[in-house]
Amino acid sequence: MHRDKAVGIGLLVVGIVGILLYGWLVFFSPWSAFVIQLTAFVAVAAVLGILAWVGYALATTPPPKPIEEIEKEIEEELKKLEQEAKSGQSTS
């Protein structure tokens, strides 16, 4: 059996067991209210954590150069290449 297939079967089993365990915890256990509260907290914390991460990334990433500045740099490089090509032709 390939390793990928074994990992896939393992994930399938873990997923099904997790669903059954979670269903029992929510509907039949004495801790059902706590499990629901914990689930809601983890879900909200995950969403807000991702939101905070995106905000941090936006706040700390430098803005990109304006297109005009990039165009000027490209034009300067093209002029340099043209001058090198002309000087290379004149020495031949």
Structure notes:
The protein is mainly α and 92 residues long. The chain has three helices and no strands. The longest helix is centred in the middle third of the chain and has 29 residues, at 32-60. The model has no long low-confidence stretch (mean pLDDT 92).
Concise synopsis of the structure shown:
With 92 residues, this protein is mostly helical. It has helices spanning 3-27, 32-60, 67-90.
Labels describing this entry:
transmembrane helix, mainly alpha, 92 residues
Topology (elements, then pairings):
Elements: H1 3-27, H2 32-60, H3 67-90
Protein name: HTH DNA binding domain protein
Transmembrane segments: 7-28, 34-59
Keywords: Membrane, Transmembrane, Transmembrane helix
Question: What is the ordering of alpha helices and beta strands?
Answer: HHH
Instruction: Estimate the global geometry from the Cα principal axes.
Output: elongated
Radius of gyration: 30 Å
Work out the helix count. 3
The main β sheet shows up as: none
Structural class: mainly alpha
